[in-house]
């Protein structure tokens, strides 16, 4: 089998990072390299041509997940020009939705990666990216009337609890109650 071009190698790396970003949010850092590479459509042996270690990949995938979150915030502001409050309201509604609850792979890295980061399931770079991402998200959520960290903690707690109680009426009640509490002053 011939060598891949530099452009193909870069494309393969991008695909692995994007796939890892989704799967880590869905399954956590216990994800095996073999399963990841299979999901990316590549061979297990190719992993170590792209990454020095699984920790390096987790670092990049975490950064990728938070970059997606930042893009979502910018997109929300673009959809509501000059109306940060409307963009925040839309973000809260989407965050505290059944769709977000049921789709951790495409969801918020703050909620999805919290347990792994807390258990030291990631490297120092991933922990730095996570910490910065939490702070940035909280800053983005801040209003004149509400502290952004309080809003983020409410959203995160509600999402985690609703995922843990999925399948019961309590799950949707948690989402609705948190959403109403956070948007009551809007």
The helix-and-strand class reads mainly alpha
Q: Determine the mean pLDDT.
A: 89
Q: The biggest beta sheet, please?
A: none
Number of helices: 10
Shape: globular
Order of helices and strands: HHHHHHHHHH
Give the termini distance in whole angstroms: 61 Å
Number of extended strands: 0
Q: Looking at the chains present, what oligomeric state does this protein adopt?
A: single chain
Uncertain stretches of 5 or more adjacent residues: none
Strand content: under 5%
> Fraction of residues in helices?
over 70%
Please state the CA-atom Rg, rounded to the nearest Å.
18 Å
Explain this structure:
This protein is mostly helical. 73% of the residues lie in helices and 0% in strands. The chain has ten helices and no strands. It has helices at residues 6-27, 33-39, 47-50, 54-79, 84-95, 98-101, 109-118, 124-141, 148-164, 169-183. Helix 4 (54-79) runs parallel beside helix 8 (124-141) and helix 7 (109-118) packs across helix 8. The mean pLDDT is 89.
């Amino acid at each position: 089998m011939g060598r891949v071009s530099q452009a193909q190698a870069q494309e393969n790396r991008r695909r692995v990072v994007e796939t890892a970003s989704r799967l880590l949010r869905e399954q956590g850092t216990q994800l095996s390299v073999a399963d990841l590479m299979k999901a990316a459509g590549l061979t297990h042996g190719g992993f170590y041509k792209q990454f020095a270690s699984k920790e390096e990949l987790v670092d990049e995938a975490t950064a990728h997940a938070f970059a997606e979150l930042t893009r979502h915030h910018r997109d929300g502001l673009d959809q509501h020009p000059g109306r940060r409050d409307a963009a925040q309201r839309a973000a809260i509604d989407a965050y505290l939705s059944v769709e977000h609850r049921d789709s951790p792979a495409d969801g918020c890295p703050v909620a999805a990666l919290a347990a792994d980061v807390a258990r030291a399931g990631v490297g120092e770079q991933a922990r730095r990216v996570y910490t910065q991402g939490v702070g940035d998200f909280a800053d983005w959520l801040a209003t004149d009337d509400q502290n952004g960290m309080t809003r983020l903690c409410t959203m995160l707690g509600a999402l985690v609890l609703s995922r843990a109680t999925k399948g019961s009426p309590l799950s949707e009640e948690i989402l609705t109650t948190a959403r109403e509490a956070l948007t009551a002053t809007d």
